[in-house]
Amino acid sequence: MPDVPPTALRRGRLWLAAAGVAVLALAIVMKADPESPATPASTKSPAPHGIDADPRSARAQIALPREPGAWPGPYGLSGVNGFPVLNSASVKEFCSTRGRDCKVAHTYTDRTSYDAMTGGSGWTFEYFADFDGVLVISQALVPDRGENLVADCAAGKYDQNWRDFGALMVTHGRGDSIVRLGWEMNEPTMAWRGRNATDYIACYRKAADALRSANPRVVLDWTINAHNTPADLCGGLSTNCYPGDEYVDIIGIDNYDHHPWSPAEADFDRTAAAPEGLNWLFDFARGHGKLFSVGEWGVMPTADAGRDNPEFIRWMHAWFAEHAPYLAYEAYFQRCDGDFSQSSILRPDDPKCLPNTGSSEVYTELFKR
């Protein structure tokens, strides 16, 4: 969940603030598409050998067949965020090290003001101009420290900003990308957190409608923070902030090995089944006819685990493989900032990062296939 000021980005650095790290029919925007990515890819006719699907099109890539039992397989959308810089070079370095190209790059917009995070976020796309894959953009609903602007957003005050962002996506040739709009609204550090579920939902819907009016091809991902929703956010249950099927194309979760961490597979399974867990939200998504995503995931040795946990990588990979027909995409989350977060892998020579050697080895073994 990075906080990314433009000054840091324009100097070529990724700055991350301490914010807890913490298909059947894909909404209105998808209904005109006969090959909507909401249909489980494995239920469609097999793609012909050498299928020519646009690698930058989220819709085209999500629609390719993904059979259960393997991940990424031929068509699974697997990737990472750019680290230490939010750009294609950082993504390509990670993917080269793992031994398999990434089909997804996850990035974030600036959050210093409404103008900066919408019409002023051209750099978000420029930094990935040469990335020949699907772009996932995490987009705030209000700027940092803008908690009091959620009601204004709900009233439509910022609709033009959202139209500007949609137009910007189209201008940069990235209209057919995934936008994680107002993600982790159940995380206490997010300015758009669901202190008032009604306002959050209304703000999300206003933003979605305005964004789609300028960019009908956008794919909207509604993502929660795993494992816990405080009582004062979304009434203590993340899905109380669900904006409705009409406004959501993919339902997702950010799932880290922390609070609680998983020392054994039984713990992993129990956490996944509990409210706000992987399986719990996956079932919610399927109940609403939506595909699923895991836009951020990773080990967390500086949290309650207190150490590297390579088995978490293994269990996540197995989960991805089992749920592959309904998994739109997944992206590992890279981050190193002292004692707060050390999720990064495949960075043995970075003095700021813990080596996480076990996780790096297991990840390479499983995700290069």
UniProtKB/TrEMBL annotation:
**Which keywords appear in this protein's UniProt record, sorted alphabetically?**
Glycosidase, Hydrolase
Phylogenetic placement of the source organism? Bacteria, Bacillati, Actinomycetota, Actinomycetes, Micromonosporales
Q: Which family does it belong to?
A: Belongs to the glycosyl hydrolase 26 family.
Q: Where is the composition biased (Low complexity)?
A: 35-48
Q: Organism source for this protein?
A: Actinoplanes flavus
Under the heading PROSITE patterns, the entry gives: GH26
Task: Show the active-site residues.
Answer: 184, 296
Q: Which SUPFAM superfamilies did the record assign? A: (Trans)glycosidases (SSF51445)
Membrane spanning segments where? none
Give the InterPro entries listed for this entry: GH, GH26_dom, Glyco_hydro_26
Map out region (Disordered) in residue numbers.
35-54
- Give the protein name, as stated in the record: GH26 domain-containing protein
Q: Where's the GH26 domain?
A: 34-337
